[in-house]
Specification:
This protein is an alpha/beta fold and 279 residues long. The chain is 46% helix and 11% strand.
Length: 279
């Protein structure tokens, strides 16, 4: 099935050259200064090594901060135009999942709202009809990597590009549309992600708020985290794949989502896809 760019991709126009974030420029400066210091005064090598090690630790820590923008652009909220329209974005990670995703779709249909599904490439290939059903119902599928590897954030440039490209291909070949947003597995990344995303014309999207519905079995707790102070422009992270279960064995998301959608209706908030919000 041929793939085509989304409206958001077309609207962005020709891509400008990648610009190194200032944090990485500073990191390069630390390495250069350490090299110069050791060349001029070899006895300073312990201090130079310590400065380089501290720099590496700081940059690594930034990669473990999902909502950081210091390693490159990162979408945390919807743009002002979407906020003015009282829009929010519901995003679902780690699917498609045959037991949970169809029920999520039915709930979204019941409230007549649209959402964004950050899907894993291998799961799209395993459940192609379910992926196509997501799109048929008016939702969007975006890239959540090909295999959701736990080693993604410590991978090198080549491996990260391969993971993302394979996810792009799996989704585009299955649903006929090339993703334009990317979410890193667990939100973790490193210095190589931003140049790869720029090369592939993808935008990193994290979140404003998350309910931890993949690890917490308490539906009340998850709902409070998502609903309390919910406001226009918020970008919410939920899971249709890898969903935690309540004590009764029900996927937490299926208990939380109706409450969340009722709260949106009561507050006159309109869930839309990321593509729509940024178009």
């Amino acid at each position: 099935m041929p793939s085509s760019p989304s409206a958001a991709q077309v609207a962005r126009g020709p891509s400008a050259p990648w610009r190194m974030p200032w944090v990485l420029k500073a990191s390069v400066g630390v390495h250069a200064a350490a090299g110069v210091a050791v060349a001029a005064m070899p006895e300073l090598w312990p201090q130079a090594l310590a400065s380089v090690a501290a720099n590496h630790a700081a940059v690594t820590a930034l990669g473990l901060w999902p909502t950081s923008r210091l390693l490159g652009p990162n979408i945390l909220r919807l743009p002002p135009t979407a906020i003015a329209r009282r829009e929010i974005a519901l995003t679902f990670d780690d699917g498609p999942e045959p037991e949970v995703t169809p029920q999520v779709l039915d709930l979204l249909d019941a409230f007549q709202v649209k959402a964004t599904f950050f899907c894993i490439g291998v799961r799209v290939l395993q459940h192609p009809e379910l992926a196509r059903e997501i799109v048929r119902r008016g939702h969007r599928i975006e890239n959540h990597s090909h295999a959701h590897r736990h080693t993604f954030s410590v991978s090198g440039l080549k491996r990260i590009e391969q993971e993302i490209r394979r996810g792009q291909d799996a989704i585009a070949d299955t649903v006929g549309r090339l993703p334009c947003f990317f979410r890193a597995p667990a939100g973790l990344r490193n210095v190589f992600l931003d140049p790869v995303l720029h090369k592939l014309d993808l935008r990193l999207a994290s979140w404003t708020r998350r309910g931890f519905d993949a690890v917490r079995s308490d539906a009340d707790y998850v709902a409070r985290r998502l609903i309390d102070d919910l406001s226009p422009g918020d970008l919410l992270l939920l899971h249709d794949g890898h969903a935690a279960r309540t004590a009764a064995g029900t996927p937490v998301i299926l208990e939380v989502l109706p409450r969340l959608l009722e709260a949106c209706r009561a507050r006159n908030l309109h869930p839309v896809t990321l593509d729509a919000a940024f178009s």
